Amino acid sequence: MNPDRIRRLEDGLSGVARKVLDAVPISEAWTVHAIAGEMRRATGSSYEHRLVVGCLESLKSSGLVREYSRGKFMRVCAKEGSNVLDMPKIIKAAENAMHKASKPKSISEMLGTLSASLLESASMVDDIIKEFQSERAKHESEIAKLRQLQDLLKGIAS
């Protein structure tokens, strides 16, 4: 997840959810009890276990927290870099690669250099597509769960 997305998600958190997120460590997975203890230490007040668990589940569904093993949570780190294709940057890198290489003696060598840089760019595009597809699949499964919940609630209401 990129830093901008994390910042946007954090800006939308409630006060208690923000305190829970602040208590979740980045470097290791902690239990709900340890996180609640850290919240008590940091804020001076204690929160109900159910409230902390609910906030952690909400943070997990938004992608800010991961449950690495049952009942142990860890904060998600921001990925550096951008997933957006920057064509001028890619073209400049291709030109630099062509200039850094010894001056080609023939057209076929120039085409070989260009094709190598294009293959590298294609590899970058493939990586971005794979990440996009995995995020899309995750969102589709979340939507399916929400639809199931909606159907269940409609069944209860009628």
Topology, element by element:
Layout: H1 3-11, H2 15-23, E1 30-31, H3 32-43, H4 49-62, E2 65-69, E3 72-75, H5 87-100, H6 107-157
Helix pairs in contact: 2-3, 2-4, 3-4, 5-6
Q: What's the helical proportion of residues?
A: 55-70%
The secondary structure category is mainly alpha
Number of strands: 3
The helix/strand order is HHEHHEEHH
If helices are DSSP runs of H or I spanning 4 or more residues, what is the number of helices? Answer: 6
Task: Give me the Rg, rounded.
Answer: 23 Å
Query: Which CATH class of the largest domain applies here?
Result: Mainly Alpha
Approximately how much beta-strand content do the residues carry?
5-15%
In CATH, the topology of the largest domain is named: Arc Repressor Mutant, subunit A
Number of folding domains?
2
Output mean pLDDT.
81
The CATH fourth-level homologous superfamily of the largest domain? Winged helix-like DNA-binding domain superfamily/Winged helix DNA-binding domain
Query: Order of strands across the biggest sheet?
Result: 1-3-2
The second-level CATH architecture of the largest domain is: Orthogonal Bundle
How many strands, which pairing sense, and closed or not: the largest β-sheet?
3 strands, antiparallel
